[in-house]
Structure formats: C-alpha cells, structure tokens
Amino acid sequence: MFKAIGKLFQKVKDGLTKTRQVIGGALRRLVGGGRTIDAAFLQELEDTLLSADIGVAKSDEIVAELKAKYRDGEVAKGEDLLAFLKDSLRRELAVEQDELRFQKTGPTVVLIVGVNGAGKTTTIAKLAHRLTTTGRKVLVAAGDTYRAAAIEQLEIWAKRAKVEIVKGEAGGDAAAIAFDAVAAAQARGSDVVLIDTAGRLHNKEHLMRELEKIRRVIQKRIPDAPHEVLLVLDATAGQNAVQQAKVFKDAMGVTGLVITKLDGTAKGGIAITIKRELGLAVRYIGVGEGMDDLQPFDPDAFIEAIFA
Ligand SMILES: Nc1nc2c(ncn2[C@@H]2O[C@H](COP(=O)(O)OP(=O)(O)O)[C@@H](O)[C@H]2O)c(=O)[nH]1
Ligand SMILES: [Mg+2]
Questions:
Q1: What is the pLDDT of residues 194-222, one digit of tens each?
Q2: Do the Cβ atoms of 161 and 109 come closer than 8 Å?
Q3: Distance, CA 40 to ligand 1 centroid (Å)?
Q4: Nearest-ligand number for the alpha carbon of 263
Q5: Do residues 182 and 146 make contact, with C-beta atoms less than 8 angstroms apart?
Q6: What angle, rounded to 10 degrees, do the helices at 239-252 and 270-278 form?
Q7: Span from the CA of 74 to the centroid of ligand 2 (angstroms)
C-alpha cells in the first residue's frame, strides 16, 4: 500500500517537474535566502507567484497575510515562510468531494467538455482505463461527430482500454449518440458512461447549443443526468484556460475540472487561479499521454510535488 502511494506520488512529482523547477525552485530560493521581509522582498514574492499563474487575487492575499504574520512575529525565517506558503496554497485547493459522484443505481453519466485539443478524448481513455481497473463497467460515447478522426481516435482508445463504445457516422447528430449510449448503458448494466463531445463547431454559440441539446436528450432517459460535467483544460493555455472555464461554466453547469498536460508546463499554478475565480474543483490531472497518466487530484500531493 505504502509503495503504491509512493509510486503515485512519484507520477505526480514527475508530471510537475517543470512547475517545480521554475516555480517551486524560485520560491524556495526566495524564501530560503534568509532575506529580510521588506517591501522589495514582498514585491519579488508577488512577481514570482504571478509568474506561476497563481493569479492576482491569491498572490495579493498571500503577500497581505504574510505582512500581517511578519508584523505579529509569526513568521521570521525561511522555513516558516515556506510552511506558510504551502499551507496557504493547500487551503486554496482543498476539496471536499470524491473523484466522481457515482450513482447508487443506474449508470453514472459523465459529460466531457472543453475546447479542441484540450485533451478530452485522451482523458476519456485514461478515465475509462482507471475506472475499469477499479472494477467498474464503462461505456464511452463518440459524441465528437464533427470530425471523422475524432471517432476513430476514441475507437482506438476504447479498444486499448477494453471498454464498449457507442458511435455513429461523422457529421451525425451528437445528441443522438449520447442518447443511444445512455440507453445502451442502461440495457447492458454499465456503471459509468463517458460522453466525448466536440470542442469546436462553426462558432461558440453553435457549440454551446449542441452541448445543451446533448444534456436535454440524455435527460429523457435519466432525468438527473449528466451527473458530472467535467471541463477539460490544457494547463499550457495559462490564462486562456481561465477564460474558457468561465464560458463553459456559465453555459454548461460544469461540476469539476480536469487539468491536462501539466507535464508540459510550468504553469501548474493555474489550478489555484481557477479554483479561486470559479469555485470549480480539480478532480483529475493529466501528467502525460499514456493510459496511466491520469491522477485523481490530491492537493497535498500537488503542493508537495511543487515544492519537493
Ligand atoms: N503531455 C501530455 N499530452 C496530453 C495530455 N492529455 C492530452 N494530451 C495530448 O494532447 C493532444 C490532444 O488531445 P485530445 O484528447 O485529442 O484532445 P481533444 O481535442 O480535447 O479531444 C493529444 O496529442 C494528446 O496526446 C497530458 O496530460 N499530457
Ligand atoms: Mg477529441
């Protein structure tokens, strides 16, 4: 058990190597440098936090809190400071929720949304694999009917993950696929249905309308579905990811986030900005392109990995 935890942490740590090297390194050097906590120091701290995409609001808060704590004699040296920083970031990311809200009866329907290239299809594959290995029966739906390649891509992944797939023709009605998938899951006793969706249509309104239609059609079979709407965001998109999150949250009632490609960026702090600005918790993180490279989000591991 302990070994397994160690291995998982190693994956998170490896995935966050760039964030750790750039951000964790800079912060550790800064707070560990034995410097006086003066205006210049606080400015440098704020700049470093901002460069990590931690966001203006949280960076301001950290600096203000730190000032107060310094004045009250609660932090004095590098070690205290590092502990304070970690704790503040950890608190920001705290989650009260399970990975996914699994339904007690009937399939749990999960709609996966996000812009093109964010990592939706790959995330579905990884999630299907993960849920299968924990004993759940999974069905995936090829709801990105906009491009033929998207259907083929999901088919290949479904084979690899050994899960059932419901698909249709390219250019077909995505909502019909979603409906068929939910019906098939009910008939076959699947535990989870993961529905892939398009990330780009003719325009944004068109995309939102299609996603809304998928939701409505699913509800004809299961009135309280989808049980989760996971928004997939590419960490390398930085502040753009925050904008995307706003659009999808308003239009689609997103219930949680998946942040992908953390292995390719030093912008791991984006998780903190989004949690703060939108109140959406990160459920999973993607740390690579392989089937095993999806981890349930663990704030403690995340923060430890950044500062390790
Ligand atoms: N390095 C890395 N690449 C990823 C990750 N997740 C997805 N990708 C890659 O991002 C690209 C787009 O992914 P895809 O799932 O097709 O995105 P979609 O358009 O949202 O369905 C693919 O080349 C994936 O292999 C990740 O966590 N790490
Ligand atoms: Mg896709």
A1: 999 998 766 788 888 999 999 999 999 99
A2: no
A3: 40
A4: 1
A5: no
A6: 30
A7: 50
